[in-house]
Amino acid sequence: MTSSSFILKGCIAFSEGSKSIVTYRGGYVVCVDGICKGAFSEFPKRYENLPLVDCKNQLIIPGMTDLHVHAPQYTFRGIGMDEELLEWLSKYTFPEEAKYSDLSYARKAYGYFAEDLRRCFTTRAVVFATLHNEATVELMDQLDKTGVITYVGKVNMDRNGGVGLEEESAEASLQATLEWLEQIQGKYTNTMPILTPRFIPSCSDELMKGLGKLSAEKGLRIQSHLSENQSEIAWVKELVPSSTSYANAYEIFDTMGTAELPTIMAHCVYSDEEEMAILKKHGAYIAHCADSNMNLASGIAPIRKFLDAGINIGLGTDVAAGSSMNMIKTMLISLQASKMYYRLVDADVKPLSFEEMFYLATMGGGSYFGKVGSFKDGYEFDAVVIDDSKMYSMRDMSVRERIERMVYNDADAFITDKYVKGNKIYSSAE
What we know:
InterPro entries: Amidohydro-rel, Metal-dep_hydrolase_composite, Metal_Hydrolase, Metallo-dep_hydrolases
Distance between the termini: 15 Å
Low-confidence stretches: none
Strand order of the largest sheet: 3-2-1-4-15-16-17
Protein name: Guanine deaminase
Structural class: alpha/beta
Keywords: Hydrolase, Metal-binding, Zinc
Domain Amidohydrolase-related: 60-414
Helix content: 25-40%
Order of helices and strands: EEEEEHHEHEEHEEHEHHEHEHHEHHEHEE
Largest sheet: 7 strands, mixed
Number of strands: 17
GO molecular function: guanine deaminase activity; zinc ion binding
Strand content: 15-25%
């Protein structure tokens, strides 16, 4: 797949910032060598030599970024949701992930995950694998072929993993990580490595310190979990008694990252002012996973506070605690969670607007990958073309209304084409 140059014509919607959605009915968006040259209400004559793809009345939006998803958990999404986090991990997650020591099992399971990712609204994703090197390489091989641009992490965990899912020692875990990095060096076009301590209860102090050092030495980003569940938070305090907060525990081990190497912390349901200050100081990203947080009864993250504080934030499906890889569903549940936080937790914290949620799903999360998630000039051209013609209505809806309707009721909207950096990686006509 090589980047190409073309113009798409259709009903265009994209963010320029968090407060508004720019729309053009019958507008044009230009791609030159994989880079967006802007969106226009009238045909841009300076690009008249480019091929024009007329998408008719279909919606054209930027691709979406999933900042947090567990590939090995895809096989049991939507199952076991009566448990809370720690019980769910021990009863469902860890026994399932242990199966990925079998490469044939991993190959088949990751095939399902990779194909779903290729077909959904996601054009960029940050992915957890398991602690198994061979299976992680298999996942990266498969994802690279989809054309979706991803970070993938071999998980580190040398304690509290249960039968078949615990590395022998910090030294063994770090050595396995180095071997994995050496094996994949220079191998991929679309897939990059990310260091992945599962969370502090899974990683000894020695392992956490080693990963912080490895991140600095090799210029590698880190992903993990933060303040998802109250029992988890209490456990971290026992494990790292010198810490002033869960986020500070990551700081102690030099794993909170920098603006140049931003760490992704999933959840942050109970992050207070101290943790918010730490996240902002380090340029970290929060992966907001509302579906997962409600399914496991973890709580409601104060997403408005994070956004207003200027903390980097995007959305995560968090499959399998999140039940679906559909980012449209993720947007809907995140909107509902924001409203419930306002109504049930703190009436001074106003719900997010639809414009803000659309921004988080596209440009906000996309910024983790650089200039991604918008049709502004100079952004990488990620786009999804959507047919919503079966969503019948007597109203002559604006483009913005159609986008909102799709999020609140996506049953009759489907993707017809999907582009990443100008490459068409999926078509419903296949």
